[in-house]
Structures are given as C-alpha cells and as structure tokens.
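If you are new to this repository, start here. Below is one unmodified record pulled from the training split, so you can see the exact layout before writing a loader.
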Amino acid sequence: MQSQFLAAINQLCDEKNISKEDVIDAIKAALRAAYRKDYGTKDQEIEVDFDNNSGVATVYQIFEVMEDVQNADLEIDEADAKKYNKKAELGDMVRVDVTPSNYGRIAAQAAKQVIIQRIQEAEREVMYETFKDRENELVNAIVHRVDGKNVYLNLDNKITMNLPIPHQIPGEKYYSGQRTKIYLDKVIKTTKGPELLISRTHPQLVKKLLELEIPEVKSGLVDVKSIAREPGVRCKVAVKSNDEKIDPIGSCVGQKGVRVQNVMDELNGERIDIIQWSENLEEYIRTALAPAKTSVIVLDEKIKRAKIYVQPDQRPLAIGKQGQNVRLASNLTGWELDIMDIADFDGADPAAAGGGSGGEQKPKVEGVEELGLDKAIVATLTEAGLSQVAQLKGLSVKDLSEIDGIGEKGAKKIEDAVKKVA
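And here is the target side for that same chain:
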C-alpha cells in the first residue's frame, strides 16, 4: 500500500501540474542538506535513496577506499570498507548507511522550506514552458480566491497567479469561481524565476475581445487601428475597413449593438465608442471628439498639437467629465488636443462667435499657471487636459467642481481667476 507521504506527493503533483520526479529530487536535496546541517559536515559526500513504495528515505555517506586515509570525511581504509562491502578494493567507492534513528522528524522540519522552494521553482518552469509562446494572447482564467484587494487567478493548466492591483479594472468585483478573461502581455525571466505579466486594464485586451466577438476583426477585414482606454469607465476604438463593401462600425457594433455589448459586459460595463479611422487627420480628430461638434481645427505638425475651436455649448461635451473625452481623443490620435472657445479663433465669424464686434480685441490665450492659482489646482487642471485659460471659459462652477481634486471651492477660485483675465 502506498504511504500517506507518497499519496500527498502524488496529489501535489496533480494539483500543481509538475513532475513527480522533480518533487522527489527536491526531497532528496532537502534531506541531504538537513543531514549535513545536523549530523555531518559540508565536505561529506552524501546520497539519499528514496523508496517509491514505502516513502522511506535512507542516507548514505560515500567513501573512497584508500590505503592511507588522509580525510576521514571522504576516505576509508580497505579493512573498514569490507565491513560494508566484502568485495571492496582500493579505489572503489563504498556507501555506508548513516541514517540517524530519529532522522525522519528532524529531516522533515529542516527540509520543509527547501522542498517548498524547489516545488515553486518547478511550478515556475512549467508555467514558463506553458505560456512562453502565448504572449499577446487572451487567456481564460477562474478566480481562485480573493484576499482583500489581492485577487488570485487560476490560469490554464491550474497555474495560480496574482492579478496586480494596477491591472484590475477599478470597481470590478471578484469572487471565487468567477470566470474571466485576461490579457497576457509578456512572459519574462527574472532573478526569482519566470513571471507572467497579466492584465485586465491593457488596451489590447479590448482588441482581443473584439476579435473573439467579431469575425470581421478576426479575419482582418476590419482593422483596429487605435485604442484609448480608461479601464472600467470608457474606451474609444478607431476601426478601418479593408473591404469597401463592409461597414467597420456596423460590423463592430452588431445588430442592436449585441457584439459590442458582449465586450462591454466582459469589461464590467465599460462604455466602448467605435469610431471611423481616417487618414485625414482633421477628420480623424473631429470624429475622435464625438459626440462634441467642432468648428475649427488648427494643427501644429512640428509639436503634434492641435487647437480645437468649438461653440460654447459644445465645450463641456468636447472636454468631457473630468477631461475624459479630450484625454481619450488625444490618446487615440496621438496628438495633444486643446479645446478652445470659437470666440478666441482669429478667423472666426463674429456671428458664429456669438455676435461680438469684429473690432473687439481677442483675449490672449494664456496657460493656467499664469492665473495665480494654487499649484495643486494647476496640476489637477493640466492632468484633466485643461492647460490653457481659453479652455476654461464657458465652463460653469458645476462643470469645474466635477473634476477630481477641484471641488466647489476650487471651482469658484478658477472662475474668479478666469474672469480677471477675460
């Protein structure tokens, strides 16, 4: 009958998907280390035999048969050698059973950490071999357990990995047994062993989910040209058709929006805007800023920065809550976008600008750092994509107060400062 010890080893190997031979080798190494520490010396040559049926370990010390013994840890004379092997001759290697009577319990305690370490190394090697050719792929996972903010996932082949907090979708709830999909970014080797970089927030996760749900994207008839994402909140995806007969937006959205809805459901309800990619940069930027309507776009090719002039009632839409819309559009197009009031455009039609006199001097466009506001407020505005004074004009105290870190008091200070330079 198989011992409990060996039964536990077999169960461990099945659960962790590692080789039984690797575990046995780890145990032997641990027992050798334990013996040298408590009974022998570091110079001794020690071997451990492990009975695969009974689970009993026997420790042997290896000696070379010598005529003149110089090192008692490594050598033995011929007369003593024949006590263990009657056929021993000079130059032979003799194994002497040196297993202590109480070795089992002591060895188990001393070897515990070594065994755990070797098993972890074997697990990591299996993990590397399993996933090294699967970079940039979608991987199915099951939530193994949740410990506070720490989420542990079971990937293919029962490998358990921690999903780093920065790569968890904000606001998403995880529970044991939950099925989910993750993006495997890279498989790297570190000093601590192989490591999988997995994510639920990576923009490429959206692309892989689109490929899963939309045959036209999977086959290459529709290209995903760019993705800008704020995980758990909103995402903009620019698509292009490689077949003039195929509508890229319609293909991605699907009948009654069912295709894109499936992707949104997988991303904890994250809103996904599908837009048409265009080689015409102005048209592309205009589309990226939807649902806001733009009036004039002025491009600066040298610094890849664009000034977007809009009607006053379109500015809140163009900027978005907490600067989200303009920030996503900027990330999507790869251009820095400044949302300006149409009244600040030198070539604007006075009627379009609200009926102002053509002889009125246009307010100078200034940076928000020149308003005399607290550094913290300036930093928050800049982070929200509102780095210029002209961008703040027309925004109400309510609009400004919705920006994280501003609040009602901060919004009032900004409004007063803008009025002074208007």
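Two things worth knowing about this chain: The chain is about 35% helix and 25% strand. The first helix runs from residue 4 to 16.
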